[in-house]
Predict the 3D structure of the following.
Amino acid sequence: MQSSQQPWIPASFFPVSPLILVPEALGDFSVYLRQGREFVLYSRSGEKFTQHQRVKLFESGVDEVYVQTVEKPCFDEYLEENLGDILGDESLPVEERSRLFYDTSAGVIRDAFNEKLPPRLVEEKFNRVRAVVRQSTAFFRDERALRTVAPFIHHDYKSYTHSLQVFVYSVSLLATFELDEEEMYEYGLGAMLHDIGKTRIPSKILNKRGALTREERTLVQTHSVQGVAMCAGLDISQRTFNSILFHHERMDGKGYPSGIGGEDIPLAVRCITIADIYDALTSNRPYAPAMRPYDALILMRNEMATAIDLEAYKRFIKLLSGANMV
Ligand SMILES: [Fe+2]
């Protein structure tokens, strides 16, 4: 999509598929067609882009239209607002939808984790995360979604990519259970926000290369409670709170913060825990290199058998195998 990958496109424009232009919903950006080396205005910012135009472009064999780079923020906002419609559009190749999902949601979750925004904007950040989750959980009921998102998965650990990837693995796994849309959304939001409390832990501790001291480890372990505290004033369901609070609990009751175990931990949270562990193990972290998927799964079985839900773990392996990820 970036012009750097296609040198013949000047930096002032970037290409998009006309199929992602949702009729009647275009934002504040203009759409251009390319004729040789010229870019011709096709649809002006603020004008209605109609279904007729969209079909006509497609039928004329136009598989790329162009947006000016200076209007990319408006284009990204448009994607964010229309993500659900775009992800549900079967006329768009699933690989393209997966890429748009990853790019758009990564931008939103990065803002939620990284920006030191004033408190009045916390709710706005949260609402953006919520909207992305609301619009994308259904996509992961499609078995092709995980396989086509897989190439975008990052293996260098960052809080926001980890959160996004735990969301992807979790909702893909949850889709194999009989959950309704609301449960998928609420637990999906929990998966996306599970580590939000880490934004309150000093990064020099989170990124420390060596072993943590006892005090440091205790501080890091407060992140699940801190995450709940951060979300206390927001419109969040009990299921989402439980996901944030209990994602480090263990089946044998030796987890934190409360030491609950077995079926006292909601099944969906046990799935989030498996996704969390797997993504961490397969990512390069300051204190350990990324493991290969197969090795990570073996380690989970051999060293965490009493900690994780083995039935959900088996389903997770099946899911990864089906997506050609292991
Ligand atoms: Fe965590």
Summary: The first strand starts at residue 13 and ends at 16. DSSP finds 15 helices and four strands in the chain.
